[in-house]
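Same chain as my last thread, 288 residues:
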Amino acid sequence: MKVDKPSSLFDYLMEKIGTASKNKIRRMIKSGQVIVSNKAVRRPDYMLKRGEVVMVSKVKEKLVKYVSDTKYKVLFEDDYFLAIEKPAGMIASGQAPRGKRTFAEHVAEFTQFRSKNPCKSYLVKRLDKNISGITLFAKSERNRQRMRDEWENVERRFCALIEGKLPSPEGKLEHHLERNQKGHVITTRIKSGNELAITRFKLLKTFKKHNLIELRPETGVKKQMRAQLASINCVIVGDRMYGAPGNPFNQIALHGHYLRFIHPLTKEEIKITTPYPKKFSQFAKQIK
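reply #2:
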């Protein structure tokens, strides 16, 4: 709620929340649930200035302070969408482990309580827990669905640090994938029920025992890039599910660094980029 005229905080809330009693308004303020310009205010007589933003939170002040202190890397934003870089090791959405929160929940709190342009956020497509990179959010449920309807036309690119040598500096991987008994996607021969996976690859940089490559998936089969690389003995560093001997980063060395799409409302071409983590190349340089 944006303040349109000077007023005490108590009087402002009484006017805006007409169904709440005076005692309830006072309790909300004193408990730290009322946020003014990204700070919890506990004084009912606090004088609001024109243009300040007032929000009532269901979360505790401690969480509000955490959200306001969190620095997410916003890569793109307009009136309809925003893109934020997801760190590795955090579940994108769904059911988080007990005592933890998903990335989508963190972003929802961050966008709601930030001092500039507070808004709601709706995750468009998720990245796996152990993968970092560009994650797109919509500012309304309707725009999320619009973007999902066009997702097959979105160009995505990933950087990966791999063990082993590619068959060529540039090319295409094409496999039919299925799940084995442990639930992992693996390469297999063509048969009913399999999914076709196509991924283009390009060598970016060569190290003594590793290669930094760019991957461009043309299909959306779950874990396709990881499974396809493992099938040609080029497992991604840290990907123990597909045979990597260790996990030096406590993540899979796979990073979504490029996103291109036609904006479903403005019809403009949108390109979003972010560098791959420096630790990928730093690690590869240290290996003798």
